[in-house]
Specification:
single chain, elongated
Length: about 120
């Protein structure tokens, strides 16, 4: 578990540097769109991959321990939780997509102009 946390902390600066330079900081549409784009393009695929790996781990544990009923039961549990995880992730993806379509947040930055001092 510590390795996972350290891995996520190691990639934090990379995510911070991935900001679009043209994003308007005060715009709710831009901020919401950025968050939704981050969820759709980064978090959901990572969680999906973790759920698939956990399901495959359960299948391997189930098959490799054909003689031990307790280990087979643990493998079944891992497969079940992997499938539950996949269903939850797909539901979250559907909810995020619904929110994007319902609110009109597109993830694109709104171009703005810098304030200028008039010369006399």
């Amino acid at each position: 578990m510590k390795k996972i946390i350290y891995g996520l902390l190691a990639f934090g600066p990379v995510l911070a540097l991935a900001q679009a330079p043209s994003a308007v900081a005060g715009s709710l549409t831009s901020f919401g769109g950025t968050i939704l784009t981050f969820i759709n393009s980064t978090i959901i695929p990572i969680l999906f991959a973790v759920a698939i790996v956990y399901f495959i781990y359960g299948v391997v544990k189930f098959v490799m321990n054909a003689g031990d009923e307790e280990k087979r039961k643990e493998g079944k549990q891992a497969m079940l939780w992997g499938i539950i995880g996949l269903v939850v992730i797909i539901a979250i993806f559907g909810l995020v997509t619904f929110l994007v379509n319902a609110t009109g947040l597109t993830g694109t930055a709104i171009p703005g102009s810098l304030p200028q001092v008039p010369l006399q």
